[in-house]
User: Fold these one by one.
Assistant:
Number 1:
Amino acid sequence: MLCPVKYQTEPGNNVPSNQAASAASIGDIIGSNIAAALAFDNHRDVDQSLSALAADRSVVRAHVFNSQKQLVAGYARDDERPNGRQPSSPEETLRNR
């Protein structure tokens, strides 16, 4: 099973273990919400779940892929400059950490 959301923190960001655990919990909740939305092909709910990431300034970007490994949605922090190219697969997001 693929994890549908990918988080990326800023380079050099040393996250204390309690914040890492909190981020993992938030990721689990948002991931569950997104998985349910994808099951019903509800892109509005996917986008709404991703918008919740704006509350955590340590999240730079996230990408959502469906079971066919196709990019469904993405989130980028307001001050994050997009490079104009979205990842083509979940594996690519992990390579470009």
Note: The chain has a mean pLDDT of 76.
Number 2:
Amino acid sequence: MKILLINISLRPHSEKIIFPIGFGYIATAVERAGFEFEILDLDVLRLSDEEVEEYIKRLDFDVVAFGCIVTGYKYVKKLAEVIKKYKKSVQEGKKFSL
């Protein structure tokens, strides 16, 4: 099973980039469970919407995981639509927090 972990950028115009520790915990758990995964760190890469869409379009994955705090809701909703546009078998999962 291939998993795509997406770290969205909550402050795209900020020069300071801090990797979220919770995201690191999730990536570590996925790796320790033996799953193949890739990280798309939008906070570091600062990709345009078009570049993100092209990335999603060409990737092959079974599961995608991402989340945010309330200020990122609009972006996450748009991202989910892009994913569903190209990956028809992807369904929205349950929402949870650690």
Note: The two ends are 22 Å apart (CA to CA).
Number 3:
Amino acid sequence: MEKTVITKNGLIFTENGKGEYCLSGTQELSEKIIEVPQSICGVAVSEIGDYALLGSEECECVILPEGITDIGAYAFGGCLSLCEISLPRSLKHVGAHA
């Protein structure tokens, strides 16, 4: 069974099978600035999953930490107010329509 963690700002993380966390969704998110943590309880966050922030209409800025290597398909789909994304140097793959 995969472990799921929900942060106090409504971000949902699940284990990705590599011993790391993946941002997999949100819970009633109304933040204008979303800052993804580099780790949770000492475990690295390395991915933004497919559809992770889908429909986060209020989000204007996403800050991704060093260590993020993958952004899934449609990860920012429906983020109509999004105008700035901070991409780390560690990023290796960006999915379709992200």
Note: The chain is about 0% helix and 35% strand.
